[in-house]
Design goal:
109 residues; mainly alpha
């Protein structure tokens, strides 16, 4: 994928995790969707976790699995359709994509 040096490579799951983390940070910092202020704290935390876990391939996969399981569970417990519930489903789908993405090159741990 993106080759930064001969020893440091980003695989697709790592790039997706970094992108998802930065976007979660941006959406949490800027009030894009007019959400509950408590949800902004969750988005900032999930974004910071994504940026931190993007630096190793196995951690990036774990991040995707955490998103899928945690936000997927929240999405299945929906009683009403709100903006927050849409974002929960979206975040669970992002976790699924990160978990199932094939690395372009051999992941070096």
């Amino acid at each position: 994928m993106a080759l930064l040096s001969d020893q440091f490579q980003f695989t697709r799951p790592q790039a997706l995790t970094l992108t998802a983390g930065v976007l979660q940070l941006a959406f949490g910092w800027f009030d894009v969707f007019g959400l509950d202020p408590n949800y902004h704290v969750i988005q900032i935390g999930v974004g910071a976790l994504g940026v931190a876990m993007a630096w190793r391939h196995d951690h990036a996969r774990m991040y995707g699995l955490l998103l899928l399981l945690s936000f997927g569970t929240l999405a299945f417990s929906l009683n009403e359709l709100t903006t927050e519930s849409f974002l929960e489903v979206r975040t669970a789908l992002i976790g699924l994509v990160i978990t199932l993405a094939k690395p372009a090159k051999r992941a070096q741990d």
